[in-house]
Amino acid sequence: MSGPRPGNQIQLLHSGGEYFPALLAAIAGAREEILLETYIFKPDAVGREVAAALSAAVLRGVRVRLIVDGFGGRDFVQELMDDLAADGVEVMIFRRELKPLLARRYRLRRLHRKLAVVDARIAFVGGINIIDDFEPVGPRHPRFDFAVRIEGPVVTDVHRAMARLWRLVLWASLKRRFVPLRWALPEGVRSGSMRARLVLRDNLRHRRDIEEAYLDAIEHAQTRILLANAYFFPGRVFRQALMAAAGRGVQVTLLLQGRVEYWLLHHACRALYPPLLTAGVRIVEYRKSFLHAKVAVVDTGWATVGSSNIDPFSLLLAREANVVILDETFATGLAAALQAACTDGGVEVSLADWQRQRWWHRATAWLAYGILRLLLGVAGYASRLK
């Protein structure tokens, strides 16, 4: 993994209420090029507003390249793709879903990154899809999530990663394989004082980079680890690292999903609670709305924001992108947001709470855990959870 780059200006964006205005403003100011990657691109009010902004950019001469995952973007393919392509947006689908009943391992390897670069000058990295914050319908409060807006040398790395994936998908799709592509040229100039680096996960050169970045920070933690993650089902090495940190006096807090969005993952995650709680790890379930964040703060100067969950699908299968930020002011701001969520919307779970549950609640958790392990075993990944 490359070291951190100095000279960045990074702004924390809390949920869609801050992210989409910033993204739309950058798109509106684009002069040469817009690159966008997303797992979900919903044809709701937010999705249509972003789509309209992309089309408007093309009409004023901006080159727009958009990649949407074939599974997460199924609604996009049906309702938005053709109109965008007709307007001149260059659209590609990552592993398009053509045979829904076909069970193959490669179909689990999804594009889960949420990235954007405008004019090779401004980048966005995070966990926020192109979707209304209030989907799925139900909560009165917006989905809890984060992204960052970046100016500075790290933008060059984000642009390079997006251009590389575009060429790979273009090659795989048999489209324009040998036609030269024009790209905006990143300047890489310093825009601030923050040190940061882009950390990727793919199935080639960066299989464990995000997991190793987390483990390195956890193993060197001295005072606190504050980790918020929507889908938390780590392997044994990750769990032991958290428990070892708690054992040496580090305050370890996990802010996890309290609402049931995906039944299997939700209950399988809860089967991991007893050993973590016994080791002194604090667990808080966020129940105010749906938690979608994938962020962490370690000590006073290490933070990460990105798309990677701490589960087998993100750590073993999907393409993911996180930014690690080494800046005390940024880490303090993110920690404050997470601590506020623990207080307003979080419910702490104690070992006594777990043990007082009806037996069938605990049995449901272990059943889900067993089913998920079985499914990963069928796919050939169970051993990686050890």
UniProtKB/TrEMBL annotation:
Keywords: Cell membrane, Lipid biosynthesis, Lipid metabolism, Membrane, Phospholipid biosynthesis, Phospholipid metabolism, Transferase. One of its GO terms (cellular component) is plasma membrane. SMART domains: PLDc (SM00155). GO terms for biological process: cardiolipin biosynthetic process. It comes from the Bacteria. GO terms for molecular function: cardiolipin synthase activity. Gene3D superfamilies: Endonuclease Chain A. Residues 107-134, 287-314 form the PLD phosphodiesterase domain. It is a peripheral membrane protein. It is found in: Cell membrane. Catalyzes the phosphatidyl group transfer from one phosphatidylglycerol molecule to another to form cardiolipin (CL) (diphosphatidylglycerol) and glycerol. Belongs to the phospholipase D family. Cardiolipin synthase subfamily. ClsB sub-subfamily. This is Cardiolipin synthase B. It comes from Candidatus Dactylopiibacterium carminicum. The gene is clsB.
